[in-house]
Design a protein that fits this description.
139 residues, alpha+beta, 5-stranded antiparallel β-sheet, two-stranded parallel ribbon, 35% strand, Glutathione_S-Trfase_N
């Protein structure tokens, strides 16, 4: 479940929610026009929130995540916890990326700590069969 809004100038107006489909995550984009912040939130394909262009994990649609983050004053962050996209761009552009297999294991404790601390993070789940091809490319 992700918060949804388009071109909102107040976070309190972004209270509508939607369920993302498989392969999608929550996102928030914030741009600043003078003293006004403009928020857009919703579901986005994981590829749009994934690793930088050139990574073996697959292409990023449009500009790379790094390029979007560098386009200050701008924030584009993604997350996977229910309702997580309401606050992910409030604390600047610093978010964590957790790369781990798509099952509960050692990475699950890290996911739980991030969620408990209300820390935005990008939860990048890797298929086990893809691991040999990507294990040296993760940054």
């Amino acid at each position: 479940m992700c918060h949804v809004c388009t071109s909102a100038t107040d976070l309190s107006s972004c209270q509508a929610t939607t369920m993302c489909t498989a392969g999608q995550v929550c996102f928030t984009e914030v741009s600043h026009m003078g003293n006004t912040s403009v928020y857009s939130m919703g579901c986005s394909d994981l590829q749009q929130c994934g690793p930088p262009v050139g990574s073996i994990m697959g292409p990023v649609i449009g500009r790379s995540v790094d390029a979007r983050q560098a386009a200050a004053p701008y924030c584009h962050n993604c997350c996977t916890a229910p309702g997580c996209n309401l606050n992910i761009c409030k604390s600047g552009n610093d978010t964590y990326r957790l790369f781990y297999f798509d099952f509960r294991g050692r990475g699950e404790l890290t996911r739980m700590i991030f969620k408990y601390m209300d820390q935005p993070f990008t939860d990048i789940r890797i298929n086990f069969q893809d691991w040999p091809a990507i294990k040296y490319s993760i940054q």
